[in-house]
Recover the amino acids of this structure.
């Protein structure tokens, strides 16, 4: 350790970390694709106080918010195989539960977690939209679905965008916990490479830089999209 | 043409409408007056099903439906022929003036986009905004926004337009431009029900004035009858308070 940073390994580790980006992005995107519509529908159930669905949503949110993701991972990663095992045995399905690719657990854990976050993001955005917008849409003969699709959702997205960006960036960072169930993402790949010669500092630095670059790029993308959506709010000088 | 009867509505303990009946014929300009909390706005909102009445009947042309149990389809049908102008305009913030006007035509009525834009431009021209087609609501003054709101209603060529205190949210010097537009539309023969505190509009434009208080219609008649020879003491009290002094002396 006394000889300082091993620059050549740092360089190598950087590319190893980069090779984990596709998995990280895949998990992020799948989690968002599941969480966005589910979160929106459950947000509506809270907003319109739909019985049962609303209570389920609220218990679900406090469960997710009140526990660390790592604990959620441990619970899902250990309980789902048990349940599947019982199910598979009962119906004689010949799949070995211990050969299920860890990415499936990542999809489950992270969409489960992100949905809860997005419910609250969408609920607060819904509350910010003036009820008059919906009434005006109805008064000109739009159905409720049309009113949501054409009037409410476009305005709601502008309000929700900063929080959606935060949620997405948090999700990207949270996928690093995938190492707990051997998901071959950025953190795990680089750490494994570091094990060989104990070059941990270099590995952590490489991981640090890759996450920073990735998250900055995502933030920039959100910013551009938000500005485009919010064009109508710009006042002409 | 339009008749609502026996309209009841309460919010919790508060009975806002206690059996209101009004009738509007084709070409009528009906102005509803009354102190705050008399149920004028609620009545208007019940007619367009923005508020669900507890009881009551609505007859439009030759169909009649219950105000409290009408189906979505029936409500949709009523809204096809009854347009609404809101107190705080409620323009769609993310759409231009023209898009605000064409939205109901293109999406609600399935009019072709080209045709809808033509109708939309005509409607905006009619309210004096031919230079603001592409402006977003937050680039317009309150008066201009409300005129877009009126154009949005007019473009749908409804059988009747409901105005819910269309000038109450405006700066005093912007009120006249909106009232002027409403007067023009009325003179073209548009049927309308207007809830307002603008007595001059009621006097000049309305052919029927309804005075409401405490959730009931106290008195109705022509503008002349209501302003010059009100029959009920409650009406007289109200008018004394809201009319300019010289008008009272001229009686």
């Amino acid at each position: 350790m006394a000889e300082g940073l091993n620059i050549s390994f740092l360089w190598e580790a950087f590319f190893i970390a980069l090779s984990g980006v596709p998995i990280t992005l895949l998990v992020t995107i799948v989690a968002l694709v599941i969480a966005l519509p589910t979160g929106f529908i459950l947000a509506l159930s809270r907003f319109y106080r739909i019985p049962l669905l609303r209570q389920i949503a609220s218990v679900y949110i406090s469960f997710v918010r009140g526990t660390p993701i790592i604990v959620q991972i441990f619970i899902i990663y250990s309980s789902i195989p048990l349940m599947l095992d019982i199910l598979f045995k009962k119906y004689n399905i010949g799949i070995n539960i211990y050969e299920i690719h860890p990415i499936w657990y990542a999809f489950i854990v992270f969409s489960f977690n992100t949905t809860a976050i997005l419910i609250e993001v969408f609920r607060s955005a819904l509350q910010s939209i003036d009820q008059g917008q919906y009434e005006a849409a109805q008064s000109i003969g739009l159905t409720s679905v049309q009113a949501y699709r054409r009037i409410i959702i476009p305005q709601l997205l502008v309000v929700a965008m900063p929080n959606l960006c935060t949620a997405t960036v948090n999700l990207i960072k949270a996928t690093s916990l995938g190492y707990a169930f051997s998901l071959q993402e950025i953190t795990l790949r680089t750490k494994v490479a570091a094990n060989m010669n104990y070059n941990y500092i270099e590995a952590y630095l490489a991981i640090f830089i890759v996450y920073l670059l990735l998250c900055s790029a995502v933030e920039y993308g959100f910013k551009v999209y938000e500005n485009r959506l919010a064009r109508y709010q710009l006042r002409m000088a | 043409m339009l008749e609502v009867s026996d309209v009841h509505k309460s919010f919790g303990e508060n009975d806002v409408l206690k059996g209101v009946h009004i009738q509007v014929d084709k070409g009528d300009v009906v102005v509803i007056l009354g102190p705050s909390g008399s149920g004028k706005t609620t009545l208007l909102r019940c007619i367009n099903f923005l508020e669900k009445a507890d009881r009551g009947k609505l007859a439009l042309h030759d169909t009649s439906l219950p105000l409290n149990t009408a189906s979505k389809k029936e409500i949709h049908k009523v809204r096809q022929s009854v347009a609404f102008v809101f107190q705080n305009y409620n323009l769609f913030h993310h759409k231009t003036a023209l898009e605000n006007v064409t939205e109901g035509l293109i999406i609600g009525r399935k009019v072709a986009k080209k045709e809808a834009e033509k109708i939309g431009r005509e409607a905006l021209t009619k309210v004096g905004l031919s230079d603001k087609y592409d402006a977003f609501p937050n680039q317009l003054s309150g008066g201009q926004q409300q005129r877009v709101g009126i154009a949005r209603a007019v473009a749908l060529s409804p059988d009747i337009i409901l105005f819910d205190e269309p000038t109450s949210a405006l700066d005093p010097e912007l009120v006249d431009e909106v009232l002027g537009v409403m007067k023009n539309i009325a003179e073209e023969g548009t049927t309308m029900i207007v809830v307002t505190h603008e007595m001059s509009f009621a006097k000049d434009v309305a052919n029927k004035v309804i005075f409401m208080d405490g959730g009931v219609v106290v008195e109705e008649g022509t503008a002349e009858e209501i302003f010059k020879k009100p029959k009920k003491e409650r009406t007289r009290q109200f008018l004394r308070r809201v009319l300019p002094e010289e008008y009272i002396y001229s009686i």
